[in-house]
Amino acid sequence: MYFITGGSFNGKAGWVRHDFCLENADTQWIPLFEGGFEEIQPAKSTLVLEGLEYAVRFSLMHCQGDVRERFREQMLRLRKWEEEHPERKVIWIGSEIGKGIVPIDPFSREWRDMTGWVYQDLVEVSQKVWLVWYGLATTLKG
Q1: Is the Cβ–Cβ distance between 15 and 137 less than 8 Å?
Q2: Given the DSSP bridges, would you call strands 46-50 and 89-95 parallel, antiparallel or unpaired?
Q3: CB within 8 A of 28, min separation 6: which ones?
Q4: CB 52 within 8 A of CB 92
Q5: End-to-end distance of the chain based on CA atoms, in angstroms?
Q6: pLDDT by residue (tens digit) across 69-126?
Q7: Which of 13, 55, 73, 124 has the greatest CB tally within 10 Å of its CB?
Q8: What are the DSSP calls for 19-59, one per residue?
Q9: Measuring CA to CA, how many Å separate 105 from each of 50, 81, 95, 102, 113?
Q10: DSSP code of 14?
């Protein structure tokens, strides 16, 4: 399992396509910008999930229960799927939203906090983690 984070529009998706050689790969690319996190069913050997921060936001707005735990369960389910076959890969892409001024709006603060906690959980279960700024990657783990 792999996690790529960094600033919005800083080249994360392009870096993933290039560095994981996904141009001709058997890849299922799932945008999470409008939710849909709970319906993920891998259909190809490489699964790329982009827009994790928006999936967190959507879940906070529409889901009941422990959002962090639901994300952790999904991460572990996808990691298990990945480990069942050596050719499988799960790649997560999520923008950094925790830097800068703390939002005044309570929901925006909750979104920022929950995204940070979900990212911490994802870093824990990922074998490699990169930070991408301006198309350049720095290895944070692995």
Answers
A1: yes
A2: parallel
A3: 42, 43, 44, 46, 47, 48
A4: yes
A5: 11
A6: 999 999 999 999 999 999 999 999 999 998 888 889 999 999 999 999 999 999 999 9
A7: 55
A8: HTT-SSS-EEEEE-TT--GGG----SSEEEEE-HHHHHHHH
A9: 25, 38, 20, 9, 12
A10: H
Record the tokens describing residue 3, joined without a space.
């996690």
- What is the torsion angle, in degrees rounded to the nearest 10, for the CA atoms of residue 46, residue 51, residue 53 and residue 56? -70
How far apart (Å, rounded) are the C-alpha atoms in residues 94 and 115? Answer: 9
Per DSSP, 92 falls in state E
Edge to edge, what strands does the sheet with 46-50 contain? Answer: 27-31, 46-50, 89-95, 2-6, 128-133, 136-141
On whether the CB atoms of residues 29 and 13 are closer than 8 A, the answer is: no
Helix (H, G, I), strand (E, B) or coil at 9: coil
pLDDT digits (tens, 9 = 90+) for 14-62: 999 999 999 777 999 999 998 777 778 899 999 999 999 999 999 999 9
As given in the structure block, the two tokens for residue 54 are 């928006």
Q: Which amino acid is at 59?
A: S
Helix then strand then coil, in percent of the chain rounded to 5, is 40, 25, 35
How many alpha carbons fall within 13 Å on the CB side of residue 39?
Answer: 6
